[in-house]
Amino acid sequence: MDSPTHLRERSVLTAQIAELQVRKDVASPEFRHGAVDALHWLCVGGPGPLSGVLAGLPVRSQAIVRELAAAEAIIYGEPSACRDYACGLEHALMWAECATPAPPVPERRRPAGAGTGF
Fold first, then answer.
1. Which top-rank group of organisms is this from (predicted)?
2. What contacts 1, CB < 8 A, 6 or more positions away?
3. pTM reported for the whole predicted model
């Protein structure tokens, strides 16, 4: 039986999408594109970014596993121009499922004392 997967809150996922679209300095464009596609898919459903298999909302664990398997086939398979995209997708899905603590793109850190009024 396929059950819903525990994911980070939608507001956290959409904040990470925005961060990925702004932060051009921390990952390749292909990695960011894969991560954005993965997080967007988790928020709205539709065809899987790599498999193309249709998923409803909430996206079920079986659909996420299918996308992770497709990403790993690219990452660990023959050299491919899609490798960075697949890495971004895999990282974003693992983070969204709370399987890894680091988001695809780290939040910007304020310099010490910034915003404190001192």
1. Bacteria
2. none
3. 0.85
| 89 phi and psi angles, rounded to 5 deg | -65, -45
Per-residue pLDDT tens for 57-80?
999 999 999 999 999 999 999 999
**CA distances to 88, 105, 112 from 109, in Å:** 21, 12, 9
Give the relative orientation of helices 10-22 and 83-96 as an angle to the nearest 10 degrees: 150
Q: List, for the chain, all residue ranges whose pLDDT scores fall below the cut of 70.
A: 1-4, 106-118
55, containing H or E segment: strand 54-55
Q: For 99, list phi and psi in degrees, rounded to 5.
A: -85, -15
Cis peptide leading into residue 111 (ω within 30°): no
59: left (phi over 0), alpha (psi -120 to 50) or beta: beta
Given the structure tokens 């909302």, which residue do they identify?
57
Sequence-distant contacts of 49-55: CB under 8 A, at least 24 apart:
49/89, 50/74, 50/86, 50/89
- Cα separation, 36 vs 98, in Å, equals 17
